[in-house]
Amino acid sequence: MHLIFHDPSFSYELLRTIGCAVYGGADIGECLSTASRIQEGDSESWYQEWSRTAQRVEALADAALAAGSSVSAREAYLRASNYYRSAEFYLHTTPDDPRSLPTWEKSRSCFRQALAISTLAYQEVEIPYEDTSLPGYFYQVDRTETPRPTLLMHGGYDSTGEELYYKYVVAALQRGYHCLTFEGPGQGQVIRLQGLPFRPDWEAVVTPVVDYACTLPQVDPDRLVLLGMSFGGYLAPRAAAYEHRLASCIVVDGLYSFAEVMQNSASDLLASSPEGEAENYNAVVQAVMQKSTMVRWAVTQGMWTFSAPSPYAFLQKTKFYTLEGIAQNITCPTLICDAEHDLFFQGQASKLYDALTCPKTYLFFSEAEGAGEHCHEGALLRLNQEVFAWLDQTV
Known about the structure:
This protein is of the alpha/beta class. It has 15 helices and 8 strands.
């Protein structure tokens, strides 16, 4: 699918942003107008135009709030939050870009302003984790303490806790599920402010979240569901293999081995730069990064979130991110989603499904139904229809 841009990364990220419109995270005209001003493949132009749109929409929110129109203000703050997130996306291709942190903070600030003037029953939470804490949001269907099934949600390689609201939280609340969203090491605040990189043993992250959820009177501890998206397609099932208090696990989309994905993508480069010759490998990768927006972003994002000083060091760290010999330890019912034209992890969902020995369901989403892109961006209504139909039957 190509949306405005021929650059596959720009096209996909535009689809990701515009797709949130169905749950209040964008307005289609704002997105198309912004995209029309962006120069193809120019990440600086991407930042400038999304930032201008975000600032303009935030100003609309401020004006609406000052005029006493809380509904209009909430709607605009939600859109501005997502636009700031999109603006910040490619800033990580330049290490230590001074605009990155303030832009992310604006995204989070707008989101929290929207929640503060909404009618949602929610609270910002800090989940105890080792010698620190993990940030999150606990959303309730209503303000009672009636125990309900609860989704524990995290994102992936680059998503934020705020973005999860548009993807799944609204849909879950509409269907009677509480939601506890959180960011772990390598994600959101935890990498930006706390400096904690990704870790392969994600059960060490999820178990404290389950412990915390079980202390909430609104949560039914026998109906806890873990959902992971994108790179979370490895993280969530990895956690479910060791944390057996989960009633089910939802994977959007399945990722059996990140190690395999990285090794395959690097195979040609490794052939021209033999194993161990890190300096030569780094030089080859740097050359490819100059030509490809996707590679440039993926490598620099990985170096940052995995705390790797070079492309070669990043590649070495990914070797520990595989479910080989682990997937069969999952015992809870598990839903594996797959996309026909997954831009990042093609073929990985079916490999994970085949490795499972627990009760399992495989959902394939096609290009013909408009849901064939990674994480089914642009088809969130279709995705959530199927996910929650499965979940209703399961828990």
